[in-house]
UniProtKB/TrEMBL annotation:
Residues 11-90 form the YhcG N-terminal domain. Pfam families: DUF1016_N (PF17761), YhcG_C (PF06250). It comes from the Bacteria. Residues 113-259 form the YhcG PDDEXK nuclease domain. This is DUF1016 domain-containing protein. One of its GO terms (molecular function) is nucleic acid binding.
Length: 280
């Protein structure tokens, strides 16, 4: 049966509703896409509105199955489903450079799934006239949106999170806890390309959190994510291979160069934290 040969719903099923031409075309497309019993597929567990979004926005069976499974697993609304399709989650999830295969021999697949590359920070909505204070305000005000971009399970623990080693205070850019995987997640932020020394510093922070913050009986190993404006993959891969802590390298999009230059430096952030705490 071709699209032009669809039966008239009123004539074929006079007592049924919702079988207009558009819905019949969706049903026909479904039958051609999922040739096996639909109830055995994740898509069979989704509301009709979700299914029409999938069929309208996606082309390949692999992409359709990916987003259907994610929507079922996480209970996405239709709006959230549309957001993740537009963000190309299928291409970014688990795409970061990592050393997890070596440092997390058991469970590395599950941990890799929570690290994306790139992260989309377009929601900051900053222009070239933004000042440093504007950027700081935007980061704080849009924290919930950033948590959404990170994915399900992340809980925010603090910004410029202080840890004391040998009487010296160090401050972690962003510290999160993943409630489902029971791991702390350290974010080191860079507005330049990732460098080997950045990976080394991140490994240091992960080791400190493991030793001073993590609960040995409850929590699994801490992981670290270096989030930078760009990277030389060969350089980063060497740096990751030389570190014995579970680390990942990701990039971000959404901040033009003129805005990235306005990001506060590590020294600026440290000074802001010291001022807030009244430290000399």
């Amino acid at each position: 049966m071709t699209d032009n040969e669809l039966p008239l719903p009123v004539q074929a099923f006079p007592t049924m509703r919702g079988l207009g031409r558009a819905n019949l075309q969706y049903l026909l497309k479904m039958s051609r896409t999922w040739t096996e019993p639909i109830v055995q597929q994740p898509v069979g567990q989704l509301p009709w509105g979700h299914i029409t979004v999938l069929l309208d926005k996606l082309k390949t069976r692999a992409e359709l199955d990916f987003y259907a499974a994610e929507a079922v697993q996480h209970g996405w609304s239709r709006g959230v489903l549309q957001h993740w399709i537009a963000s190309r989650l299928h291409a970014t999830k688990g795409a970061a450079l990592t050393n997890f295969d070596r440092t997390l021999p058991e469970g590395s697949d599950a941990v890799r799934e929570l690290v994306k590359d790139p992260y989309h920070l377009d929601f900051l909505e900053l222009d070239g006239d933004a000042k440093e204070r504007d950027l700081e305000d935007a980061l704080v005000a849009r924290l919930v949106t950033f948590l959404t971009e990170l994915g399900v399970g992340f809980a925010f623990m603090g910004r410029q999170y202080p840890v004391v080693v040998g009487g010296e205070t160090f401050r972690i850019d962003l510290l999160f806890y993943h409630a489902r995987l029971h791991r702390y997640v350290v974010f080191e932020l860079k507005t330049t390309d990732a460098r080997p020394e950045h990976v080394g510093k991140l490994g240091f922070y992960v080791a400190v959190v493991d030793d001073l913050v993590r609960d040995d009986e409850r929590d699994d190993s801490t992981i670290g994510i270096l989030l930078s404006a760009g990277r030389n993959e060969a350089v980063v891969e060497y740096a990751l291979s030389a570190n014995n802590r579970p680390l990942a390298s990701s990039t971000y999009t959404g901040l033009p160069p003129q805005v990235r230059r306005l990001l506060p430096s590590e020294g600026d952030l440290a000074q802001v934290a010291q001022d807030a705490l009244g430290e000399p």
